[in-house]
Design goal:
Blueprint lengths: L2 H45 L3 H16 L2 H11 L9 H27 L2 H9 L4 H31 L11 H12 L2 H37 L1
Helix pairs in contact: 1-2, 1-4, 1-7, 1-8, 2-4, 3-4, 4-6, 5-6, 6-8, 7-8
Length: about 220
């Protein structure tokens, strides 16, 4: 590695990392929070077997799981303005990532809800609780413990997927890398550097996931 390339990598590191910390991570956190809310609502609607809501949720999940995320970003950002709906790049990314990830997480939460023994629901009714109280106090906490590992994997995947937001001019980490590469012509080295920063973010989240799983495991053993 020559001195020029080393200097470029050293100079570019903070210029890539900073958008990662100020745009990529906030985008992931905000979008995933909304996605979890959507996922729980859609999963509960299906679990309750409310006919109209169940069909609407299945249609939503079918559409967003069956179409590419990049296409969804382009439709919302470039095509909706033709209908008079104009959104800024960052809100567009939050909206699309939330809806896309919510569809996947909804299936994860639904499966976790169905894994809870039916007797738990009946026990809640016998204790005088309503359906919503039983779900909130008994069923949902158990289901979310089961869903924690796959939901954590979805969060890690979303960190990497945010690189697609560069296609709608969100100034996140990958766009910063593209701009530096266009100026210096050191594309390979800079993209590898960006990839290592994504790897760093994913590694930290993986450590947090393992810590969370250990804590949940200890809590379950304590309950037993």
């Amino acid at each position: 590695m020559n001195d020029r390339l080393m200097q470029i990598l050293l100079d570019s590191f903070p210029n890539i990392l900073l958008p990662g910390l100020t745009v990529t991570i906030p985008l992931t956190a905000i979008a995933f929070s909304f996605a979890l809310f959507i996922a729980v609502a859609a999963a509960l609607a299906q679990y309750a077997k409310i006919p109209v809501l169940t069909q609407l949720c299945r249609f939503y999940i079918w559409v967003f799981r069956g179409t590419p995320l990049l296409v969804q970003l382009f439709v919302v950002f470039f095509d909706l303005p033709d209908m008079g709906i104009v959104l800024e790049p960052f809100p567009t990314a939050v909206l699309v990532f939330s809806l896309n990830e919510g569809a996947y997480c909804a299936e994860t939460v639904r499966a976790a809800l169905e894994a809870v023994p039916e007797g738990q629901l009946e026990a809640g009714y016998c204790a005088g609780m309503s359906w919503f109280q039983t779900m909130r106090r008994i069923i949902l906490p158990q289901a979310m413990r089961t869903a924690f590992p796959p939901l954590s994997n979805s969060l890690i995947a979303m960190v990497k997927d945010t690189s697609l937001a560069a296609s709608i001019t969100v100034a996140e980490m990958f766009m910063a890398t593209q701009r530096i590469a266009a100026r210096t012509y050191e594309h390979l080295a800079l993209y590898i550097e960006a990839g290592l920063i994504y790897l760093l973010f994913s590694t930290v989240l993986t450590w947090l996931q393992r810590a969370g799983e250990k804590r949940l495991g200890a809590y379950e053993r304590k309950e037993e």
